[in-house]
Amino acid sequence: MMREWAGWALDTAQVRGATYADVRVVDTRARGLSTKNGKVGTVAESESLGLGVRVIADGAWGFASTDRLTREQIEATAAEAVAIARASARVKKADVVLAPEQQITAVWQTPYEKNPFEVSLDAQMNLLFAVDKELRGVVGVTLAETNMSFTRLEQFFASSEGSEIRQVKMISGAGLAATSFANNEIQKRSYPNSFGGQFAAAGYELIERLQLVEHARRVGEEAVALHKADQCPSGRRTLILDSSQLALQIHESIGHPIELDRVLGMEANFAGMSFLTLDKLGTLRYGADIVNVVADARLEHGPGLGTFGYDDEGVPAQCIDIIKDGRFVGYLSSRETAPAIGLRRSGGTMRAESWNRIPLIRMTNVSLLPGTWTLADLLADTDDAIYCETNRSWSIDDRRYHFQFGTEIAWEIKGGKKTRMLKNPSYSGITTEFWGSCDAICDRSHWTLWGTPNCGKGQPMQTMGTGHGAAPARFRNVLVGVAYAR
Amino acid sequence: MLGEAGCREIAESVLAASPAEETEVFIESGRSALTRFANNVIHQNVAEEGLQVSVRVVTEGRTARATTNKTDKESLQRAAEQALAIARWQPEDPDLLPMLGPQRYTPVARVDAKTTELTPQDRALAIRMVVDRAERSGLTAAGVYSSSHGCQALANSRGLFAYHEETRAEFSLTCMNDGGSGWAKANFVSAGQLAIEELAERACQKALANREPRELPPGRYTVILEPAAVLDLVGFLFYDFAATAVTDQRSCFTGRIGQRIFGENISLWDDVYHPLQTGSAWDGEGVPRQKVTLVERGVVRNLVYGRVAAKKAGREPTGHGMLLPNEYGEAPLNLVFAGGETSLEEMVRTTERGVHVTRLWYIREVDPYEKILTGMTRDGTFLVVDGRIQHAVRNLRFNQSLIEMLNHVVQLGPAVRAAGEESFEMVVPAMKVSDFNFTEVTKY
Q: Which residue is closest to B442 within chain A, CA to CA?
């Protein structure tokens, strides 16, 4: 039916005068499970099916969507999209022009080993309760939380240029957290990452590999131990970030500023703009020579939340150099924005949350390529540093230039060894100065492709998953501890 | 949009088909449209129609939820059966309460007929006017104009039926020149309340004043926070007032109920019936919403309670529960702060040295118990000296305890319906605050 529905919409849009149209029919199934202190928190299944039509008419954009999938309603929705585009044309300077793209007929699917929707709820809940029991077995843990979620998204894309692409994406994720309240202080530890854990384009095999039960007790003990840890000092220090915190650092201080719609002012009122103005392409030194960053949506990069076969404009997944040997060389682009920087083709980064949203430029897997160090060698090579692990807070200005991050825990490195635990660590800086201070990156054996499931952008707000590969890395002369300095 | 009759029809269909002991249906339906503009042109323009039917069932002391947007009989029945199948996998929940019977709700009028009729052409015309105004001052405009008309219904097998319908309209505008920017935003039930020309004038004037910003050294400053800046800070408190959050010991009010932790000039309550508020008169459990005094002259007086939290505390539920099952319990969604009588102009006039802040950006919680927040100023930050705005300053980062800040409020403006980006809309005043902690400065 998806192909037939899309055909009705495309036909109507073109009859009404659209010079370009594309349609996405999206069928989503999701499951969310959580526990809190030995009890079920959330247990829910959901499904959503609908269709969105995006058109250019009179040289301007229009979009309409519906979940009433009768022929009459689909045709009315396509006609509405054209009417909206004509209204857009009342406030335009020039016609929208799209970079050319090849006509594609394709089928693509996320590879996975175990369909999470075919694993019994009993097994899934039992795993979460086993984790919960371990967490609550630690004296001093006052709040034990676990979660697990799965999404299967089937999408049919068709365009007036003749492309027809069917994709099925599977996303799985899980995590745990221990919170400890004592002495008028709340401390928290999470695994494998904060804010929900690890997420990937994968099946239930991801959950099994996370070994949640095995890590739970340590996480609980660290949450309690933080109360007795020393406060992270403030001042200029050498900083080592674990791979999950570095992944978020990449997301905020590289991933967002390279979005070309943001650079061109299209997000100026809401998410802001970017310090990476067009004159900086190819000229700006973004980081040290060892800093190499790519935006890679291809399967060979790994099962990231930014991994797909084709973007939501029908452009094939690509690997784009973003920072090469420390120099800024590439943006994330779309068919509309690519010509603005002289590109002949979109970088293939347009994605929409669901059938009722337009595609926007979104990070794919924006990853820092591995370096050459083992973590043991990197620590041994460091005389005096703060080693930070697992994000707790994050904030960056509206041009993505000045940032501040807090992490759940840190350790002081002295004489090449991990020594005392530190609580309430934070660090801050200017994006290019920070990346310029990077002098060591760990190798592929320490590299993890992290999933960030909750990246918000656009109006109406869209939540999208992005991927960020990173290995622990060292940064010199970073301002540490300002958040708590009085 | 379904409307009340459509919601009843679907609810009855689900309730009739459900094989569970108890069944609850929550329905959301609506149309929304949104036009975005940037670089003085409309670049995104969307419309959406959709609905969701969410079914919760109870069987043998267990509950679970399944949601669909398909409304044929088979799909609705499948949703009920799916919820039942999920529920059966769970351990028994000793805290689970029987569903509520029929309730009486205070009527709230939240629909504006003209807003339901707003067309893409109407939005384009308004944006044309705003862009023309910006261009007359050599400015570039970016923003959004949106409207929506939606309804919600909650029904259950014990005879409860609750229905709510609401329109909303929003206009937000950023005007920019080479050096700086200005911003204004409004969100109301009626598009007619937006006062778009006034917003445009305010954003343009702010952008013109915000040119050539100079760097101000970080440190403790007296700040004049416009209502949007206040909103996006105090919005971080809302979940701390949940009884469940206090029980879980993750609220900053844990161990502080009944204590004076804010200044005596701080009072706030949750009141869905306030004339500047929006939202339904019932909560996710079907309980009628009550007005609750949360803070009185700086003392934390009350929390809000869902049904389970209320039973555990030996109190009555306050009508702030979320849809079940959930791990968060409840939250106040209609915060109203007591205001004062000092205008923004008077706050500036009486300031020897301070910083005037239009709005804040990317605020995040650094410390959950001391409620330290970090974030940046944005779109209009100015140095005030001897009662006058001297010049624009580069955006500053703050690390500020909200508890400390609400002890340092020296002047309050009238409470207004404020719209920001970090929090949902609330009724808050502008505030003049002493010793606000700016820790770093950015490059623009």
A: A402
Angle at alpha carbon of residue B363, lines to B358 and B366, rounded to 5°? 140
**CA–CA min distance B106, chain A (Å):** 30
**Considering Cα of B41, then B203, then B233, then B376, what sign does the dihedral take?**
positive
Q: How far apart are CA B43 and CA A89, in angstroms?
A: 9
Q: What is the pLDDT of residues B342-396, one digit of tens each?
A: 999 999 999 999 999 999 999 999 999 999 999 999 999 999 999 999 999 999 9
| Tokens (6 digits) for B191 | 């598009």
Q: Name the percent of chain A lying above pLDDT 70.
A: 100
Bridge partners of B176? Answer: B140, B181
Neighbours of A133 (CB within 10 A): 14
Residue A143: Cβ within 10 Å count: 22
Which chain B residues contact residue A408 at CB under 8 A? none
- For B254, the closest chain A residue by CA position comes to A184
CA dihedral A24, A199, A309, A336 (to 10 degrees): 60
The DSSP letter of residue B164 is: E
What is the bridge-based pairing of β-strands B219-225 and B353-367? parallel
Burial label, A72 (beta-carbon count in 10 A; 0-12, 13-18, 19+): exposed
Chain B residue whose CA is closest to A35: B327
CB atoms within 10 A of CB A445: 9
Q: Give the one of B146, B325, B374 whose C-beta lies nearest to A393's C-beta.
A: B374
Assess contact for A459 and A270: CB atoms under 8 A: yes
Distance, in Å, from the CA atom of A206 to the CA atom of A199, rounded to the nearest integer, reads 8
Are A394 and A252 in contact by the 8 Å Cβ rule? The answer is yes
- Which residue in chain B is spatially nearest to A78 when comparing CA positions? B47
Phi and psi angles of residue A184, each rounded to the nearest 5 degrees, phi first: 55, 45
* The pair of three-digit structure tokens given for residue B98, joined into one six-digit string: 């029987």
3-state SS, residue B405:
helix
> Which among A42, A66, A85 has CB closest to B327?
A42
The structure tokens listed for A181 are 């309240």
Residue A265 and residue B140: Cβ atoms within 8 Å?
yes
H/E segment holding residue B124: helix B120-136
User: Helix (H, G, I), strand (E, B), or coil: what is residue A446?
Assistant: helix
Single-letter code of the amino acid located at A404: Q
Q: Which of B296, B387, B398, B399 is nearest to B344 (CA)?
A: B387
- φ, ψ for residue A105 (rounded to 5)? -120, 120
Give tens-digit pLDDT for B416-426: 999 999 999 99
CA distance B360 to B223: 12
Mutation target for B interface from A84, A95, A142: give the one with most B CBs within 10 A.
A84
**Continuous segment of H or E residues that includes residue B24:** strand B22-38
Per-residue DSSP letters for B332-387?
---EEE---S--HHHHHHT-SEEEEEEEEEEEEEEETTTTEEEEEEEEEEEEEETT
Number of A/B CB contacts below 8 angstroms equals 269
pTM flag (> 0.90): yes
Q: Is the pLDDT of residue A339 over 80?
A: yes
Tokens representing A155 are 């999408």
Measure Cα distances from B353 to B228, B385, B391, B436 in Å. 22, 4, 12, 12
Amino acid at B402: L
The 10 Å Cβ neighbour count of residue A466 is: 27
Residue B217's closest CA among B61, B433, B28, B439?
Answer: B439
Length in residues, chain A? 486
- CB distance B39–A265 less than 8 Å? yes
Nearest residue to A270 via CA among B209, B185, B275: B185
**Model pLDDT, residue B443:** 84
